Amino acid sequence: MSGEVIVYASISTWEYGCCGDVPQPGAHIDGTLEAFPARNGDRFAPTSQFTWNRELELVQFAGWSARWNPSDGDPTAQPIDVYLSWHPFSELLTPTVTGTVVTAHEIRNAPDGTGGYTYTQVDTLPRFPDMHGSTPESVIGVMVGFVPDSFSEPTADDLALAHAAAERGTRTVQLTGPAAAFGATVPHAYSRLTIDLDAADLERTGAGSRASGVVSGDTGQVSRVLTDDRSDSYRGFRPAPEGTSTDGLDETLYVVLTIDSEHF
Questions:
Q1: 41, 59, 104, 138: which has the fewest C-beta neighbours closer than 10 Å?
Q2: 3-state SS string over the chain?
């Protein structure tokens, strides 16, 4: 392995318990890389030189990089940890990598209760390790050292588009209520909608639910809600009768609405 780049990254137990290859020596892995402020006592924090690319929100090493959230401060002024995931941590774009695992260490909570960690090198890993919640010495993941064989990172244009999508998410609300709450006719998906968010029996969830009163925006999903007759709980969706008059329509609708920014 002399001269090869080896990347050390943590992988949570639920990642490989859920799906994907168990990340033991010899396994092929692929996923996204993201960096965070280091955990207490992490002896695998990167020590090689890197560049902080503020524009792309990346820490860039020789041959690979990881996303760095600017809200975590200056990565060059603190130890950092790298995490690999095939379930991205962030809605924003993150560098992707493939490679082959050469070393693996089980990560456990330190038994002395100090908040530190212990690392035990292993040759094989169970898909479902013996975990004991937050008790001392519980398995929380694996630290892999892998040799990357392909790598890509987002461009400035990619990042701008992702930021715009994330911003729209902060204005998006999920609405559930009687058909009449949505106007004279059942709204069409991917069209304009004006609605009173304070209408009786209208439930709203999501980041955009902080808005109130009459708002306008763009619809996404528009569905008829199916309920369980025995418990009156929601159990699924079916296509909504878009364009149908809501007068006397005994239907519960689910509508995803991205509210215009002027309402915030």
A1: 41
A2: CCCCCCEEEEEEHHHHHHCCCCCCCCCEEEEEEEEEECCCCCCCCCCCCCEEECCCCEEEECCEEEEECHHHCCHHHCCEEEEEECCCCCCCCCCEEEEEEEEEEEEEECCCCCCCEEEEECCCCCCCCCCCCCCCCCEEEEEEEEEEEEEECCCHHHHHHHHHHHHHHCCEEEEEEEHHHHCCECCCCCCEEEEECCCCCCEEECHHHHCCCEEEEEEEEEEEEEECCCCCCEEEEEECCCCCECCCCCCEEEEEEEECHHHC
Confidence of residue 211 (pLDDT cuts 50, 70, 90): very high
CA atoms within 13 A on the CB side of 170: 9
End-to-end CA distance of the chain: 55
CB under 8 Å to 3, separation ≥6 — which residues? Answer: none
Residue 261 has pLDDT above 60, yes or no: yes
- Kindly report, residue by residue over 235-252, the tens digit of the pLDDT: 688 999 999 999 999 999
Distances (CA, A) of 168 to 60, 70, 195, 259, 261: 28, 20, 18, 8, 9
- The token pair at 118 is 């212990």
Of residues 71 and 135, the one with the higher pLDDT is: 71
Buried b (16+ CB within 10 A) or exposed e, 69-80: eeeeeebeeeeb
